[in-house]
């Protein structure tokens, strides 16, 4: 019994220390997944990868800054929260606009469906996590 507990703790510990991908690596993987799903040509793949890279670098910088503030215990004011949420929505609108320029109509429709499915899956996952924590 002790060995089983030790093995379980050891397995959990390794999972937590996984190093995240760099923005360049993440952008390349996202572009390749999208190429497979939407049958992108080479030009589209490069444009999508460039877009994902720019977006990823911005997110990484925001995350770094936000975590530094969080570790100091700084709380955002209502105006600061509004500005952050507004910027996130502006970024999503810009991403959608850029994707419309890169993809043809059929590809864009499929892209929208993929986003909706992913959003639905993440929402369910979050709800299941909340239910599990309440126990």
Tell me what you see in this structure.
It is a single chain. With 135 residues, this protein is an all-alpha fold. The chain has one domain (22-134). It contains 5 helices and no strands. α2 (23-38) crosses α3 and α3 (42-72) packs antiparallel against α4. It starts with a helix and ends with a helix. The mean pLDDT is 86.
Can you tell me the overall shape? globular
The count of β-strands is 0
What ranges have pLDDT less than 50 throughout 5 or more consecutive residues?
Answer: none
Question: What is the end-to-end distance?
Answer: 24 Å
Radius of gyration: 19 Å
Structural class: mainly alpha
Helicity level, as a percent range?
over 70%
**How many helical stretches?**
5
Taken together, the total number of domains comes to 1
Largest sheet: none
Mean pLDDT: 86
In terms of DSSP E residues, the strand content is under 5%
The arrangement of helices and strands along the chain is: HHHHH
Describe the SSE topology.
Elements: H1 2-16, H2 23-38, H3 42-72, H4 78-102, H5 105-134
Helix pairs in contact: 2-3, 3-4
Which features characterize this protein?
135 residues, single chain, mainly alpha
Question: Quick summary of this structure?
Answer:
By secondary structure, the chain is an all-alpha fold. Helices cover 87% and strands 0% of the residues.
């Amino acid at each position: 019994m002790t060995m089983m507990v030790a093995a379980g703790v050891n397995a959990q510990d390794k999972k937590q220390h996984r190093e995240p991908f760099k923005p360049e690596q993440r952008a390349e993987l996202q572009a390749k997944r999208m190429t497979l799903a939407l049958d992108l040509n080479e030009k589209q793949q490069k444009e999508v990868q460039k877009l994902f890279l720019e977006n990823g670098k911005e997110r990484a910088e925001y995350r770094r800054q936000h975590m530094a503030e969080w570790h100091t215990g700084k709380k955002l004011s209502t105006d600061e929260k509004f500005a952050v949420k507004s910027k996130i929505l502006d970024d999503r609108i810009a991403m959608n606009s850029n994707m419309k320029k890169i993809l043809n109509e059929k590809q864009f429709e499929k892209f929208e469906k993929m986003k909706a499915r992913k959003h639905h899956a993440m929402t369910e996952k979050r709800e299941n996590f909340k239910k599990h924590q309440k126990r």
